[in-house]
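STRUCTURE:
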């Protein structure tokens, strides 16, 4: 297991939380944009904007691009495109609350997939924290919606692919530049979106890009895609994948905050309880509660 100085891990964790805040506040933008821009074109626009932004910002690093980074970036980009496409189409056939909840099932899949794919057996407290996080997201997102429909199945696929992506980001960033990985990943996701959008959604909706909508696409591209995925991939270099999944699941918390601040939605006591449970789960995953005198300490590992 990778170990780094506590200060580095804390900084990386806060970076990932900032990424989820960007995603959470993007909920308002997506909610307004999805009515006028088809889902795959919205993905194509945002990933293209993000790719152009990263290419300009990190042009000097391109000379360090290797075949391994390109190969791994293509795999990550493919996984990310599948996850986002399934989530977007799933939202068409199920409620927003169920879509958000089922997406975050990746917190359950990550420790088990790590065991299955990389033979990394999860700790008991990691599994407990994952279950608690899912309960917390359910309290935040679900409002009595019942029954299983095809939208739920599609969204479950999103959770599965996102879990696999989290694990491979963790593996690849051990030895490779997370910035260049993110750059390739974003461009590949955009290319897949541009290839699929005309086949499924017809001609590009360029006439729908009004002033406000263009600003929204810029936020999704430069904020939700470029900045947030950079923070995620860089953060995962220093944070274990199970903890990373829990940190990323706080997107639902920031989604609630944005709904309250921008859309003036009301917060129910159940939602506050859900936030508290998620916070408890993250502390459990980060520390194992080793600061308590009766908790057995884990073995010390080499610190980078």
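SEQUENCE:
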């Amino acid at each position: 297991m990778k170990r780094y100085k506590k200060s580095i891990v804390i900084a990386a964790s806060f970076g990932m939380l900032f990424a989820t805040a960007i995603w959470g506040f993007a909920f308002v933008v997506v909610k307004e944009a999805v009515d006028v821009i088809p889902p795959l074109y919205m993905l194509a626009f945002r990933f293209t904007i993000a790719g152009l932004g990263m290419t300009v910002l990190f042009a000097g690093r391109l000379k360090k691009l290797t075949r391994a980074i390109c190969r791994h970036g293509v795999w990550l980009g493919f996984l990310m495109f599948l996850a986002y496409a399934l989530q977007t189409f799933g939202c068409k056939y199920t409620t927003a609350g169920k879509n958000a909840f089922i997406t975050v099932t990746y917190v359950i899949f990550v420790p088990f997939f790590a065991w299955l794919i990389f033979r990394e057996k999860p700790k008991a407290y990691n599994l407990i924290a994952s279950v608690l996080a899912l309960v917390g997201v359910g309290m935040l997102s679900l409002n009595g919606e019942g029954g299983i429909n095809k939208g739920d199945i599609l969204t479950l696929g999103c959770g599965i692919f996102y879990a696999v992506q989290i694990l491979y980001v963790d593996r690849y960033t051990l030895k490779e530049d997370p910035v260049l990985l993110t750059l390739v990943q974003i461009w590949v996701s955009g290319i897949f979106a541009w290839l699929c959008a005309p086949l499924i959604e017809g001609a590009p909706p360029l006439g729908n890009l009004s002033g406000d909508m263009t600003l929204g696409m810029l936020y999704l591209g430069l904020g939700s895609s470029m900045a947030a995925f950079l923070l995620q991939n860089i953060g995962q270099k220093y944070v274990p994948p199970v903890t990373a999944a829990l940190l990323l699941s706080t997107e639902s918390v920031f989604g609630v905050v944005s709904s309250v601040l921008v859309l003036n939605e009301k917060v129910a006591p159940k939602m506050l309880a859900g936030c508290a449970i998620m916070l408890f789960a993250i502390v459990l995953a980060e520390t194992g509660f080793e600061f308590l005198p009766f908790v057995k300490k884990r073995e010390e590992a080499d610190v980078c």
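REMARK: The first helix runs from residue 6 to 33.
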